[in-house]
């Protein structure tokens, strides 16, 4: 453990890199019975479970005392009906954990040739993500595949990891295997990792964790401003975003993208703002869907709040609790978007 989070950053990048390799290789081999539908009707694949097992194993070896808030749990895999899926997940996780050591890897993190885990160790690693969250101490958030629907469509998804200390995000790492390395040159291929440490800036790395390039959100002109939003209409209100962009006289179409790749795109100047307003009452945003993105955008010089201008509260458990909606944008744009969001909310209330 280090006070400047250097070790945490190294471990987190190593874990995300291995998980990205796993998810991108599993995509090509994914077959029908390797996806389950969870209680909330959302999909989860062998890739989600195996990636959570890999990241959680590495974290537990590197920082045995730390608590983990992970999206997935292994209860379906412990049932007799989940045996086939479990066998596949154990094989995938072990393949990723035992890959040759690469840049900055350390065998003390439970990785490298010969470090196979048992079925029970893999299932326990997944279930170690069951922490309820809270406002004190150290905890990691894992979203092993954020944007599972995008992953299944072959579009954007992200492997997301953050370290939260006393409710403040201190380290965030987001791996985006399908995101263009250079948006101006899509022919240069896809796959990048984004990393931010509080007070130390934001960087884009290669998918193997090399060549750090500092990121900062460029000033936005009225012509270059547009919104990043979810592909899934059930996850955020597209019509609300249309209203806000017309209030701001935005002429460029929205950029639709799954997952926290939106925060990454914003941090490197693609799109001026990410707006995510609830579609109905009751859904509470999950901390693992926003913690790494929040620190990345803040360290790239931007601002992240909810729709009332309040900071996101990561200390209330597994969800963002009382926060309503999310607005992430550059410093110059955020006040304008917030004002337009408030106006659009007032219009909605007046109609109701
Ligand atoms: N009704 C809802 N409103 C807002 N977010 C939702 C939602 N149902 C699911 N989600 C979240 O939306 C995330 C994907 O975000 P996006 O739409 O930006 O790609 C999902 O992450 P997972 O794919 O990790 O489950 C899930 O946590
Ligand atoms: Mg999910
Ligand atoms: Mg998610
Ligand atoms: Mg997920």
UniProtKB/TrEMBL annotation:
Mg(2+) binds at residues 71, 143, 145-146, 289. GO terms for molecular function: 3'(2'),5'-bisphosphate nucleotidase activity; metal ion binding. It comes from the Eukaryota. Its cofactor is Mg(2+). It is an enzyme of class 3 (hydrolase). Pfam families: Inositol_P. The keyword Metal-binding applies. Signal peptide: none annotated. Its EC number is 3.1.3.7. It catalyses: 3'-phosphoadenylyl sulfate + H2O = adenosine 5'-phosphosulfate + phosphate; adenosine 3',5'-bisphosphate + H2O = AMP + phosphate; adenosine 2',5'-bisphosphate + H2O = AMP + phosphate. Keywords: Hydrolase, Magnesium, Metal-binding. SUPFAM superfamilies: Carbohydrate phosphatase. One of its GO terms (biological process) is sulfate assimilation. Coiled coil: none annotated. InterPro entries: DPNP, Inositol_monoP_metal-BS, Inositol_monoP_superfamily, Inositol_monophosphatase-like. NCBIfam families: bisphos_HAL2 (TIGR01330). Belongs to the inositol monophosphatase superfamily. This is 3'(2'),5'-bisphosphate nucleotidase. It comes from Agrocybe pediades.
């Amino acid at each position: 453990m280090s006070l400047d989070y250097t070790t945490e950053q190294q471990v987190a990048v190593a874990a995300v890199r291995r998980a990205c390799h796993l998810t991108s290789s599993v995509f090509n081999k994914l077959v029908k019975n390797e996806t389950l539908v969870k209680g909330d009707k959302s999909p989860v694949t062998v890739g989600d479970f195996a990636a959570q097992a890999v990241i959680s194993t590495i974290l537990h070896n590197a920082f045995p005392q730390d608590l983990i808030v992970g999206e997935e749990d292994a209860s379906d895999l412990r049932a007799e009906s989940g045996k086939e899926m479990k066998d596949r997940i154990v094989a995938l996780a072990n393949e990723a954990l035992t890959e040759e050591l690469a840049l900055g890897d350390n065998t003390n993190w439970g990785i490298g040739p010969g470090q196979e885990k048992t079925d029970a160790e893999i299932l326990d690693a997944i279930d170690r993500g069951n922490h309820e969250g809270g406002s004190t101490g150290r905890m990691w958030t894992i979203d092993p595949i954020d944007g599972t629907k995008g992953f299944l469509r072959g579009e954007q998804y992200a492997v997301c990891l953050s370290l939260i200390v006393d409710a403040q995000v201190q380290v965030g790492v987001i791996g985006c295997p399908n995101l263009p390395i250079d948006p101006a040159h899509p022919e240069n291929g896809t796959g990048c990792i984004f990393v931010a440490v509080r007070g130390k800036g934001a960087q884009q790395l290669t998918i193997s964790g090399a060549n750090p390039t500092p990121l900062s959100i460029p000033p936005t002109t009225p012509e270059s401003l547009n919104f990043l939003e979810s592909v899934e209409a059930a996850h955020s209100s597209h019509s609300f975003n249309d209203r806000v962009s017309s209030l701001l006289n935005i002429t460029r179409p929205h950029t639709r993208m799954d997952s926290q790749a939106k925060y990454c795109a914003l941090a490197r100047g693609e799109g001026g703002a990410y707006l995510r307003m609830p579609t109905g009452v009751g859904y509470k945003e999950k901390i693992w869907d926003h913690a790494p993105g929040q620190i990345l955008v803040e360290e790239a010089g931007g601002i992240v709040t909810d729709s009332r201008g309040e900071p996101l509260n990561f200390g209330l458990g597994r969800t963002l609790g009382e926060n309503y909606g999310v607005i992430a944008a550059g410093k110059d744009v955020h006040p304008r978007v917030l004002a337009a969001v408030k106006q659009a909310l007032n219009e909605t209330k007046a109609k109701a």
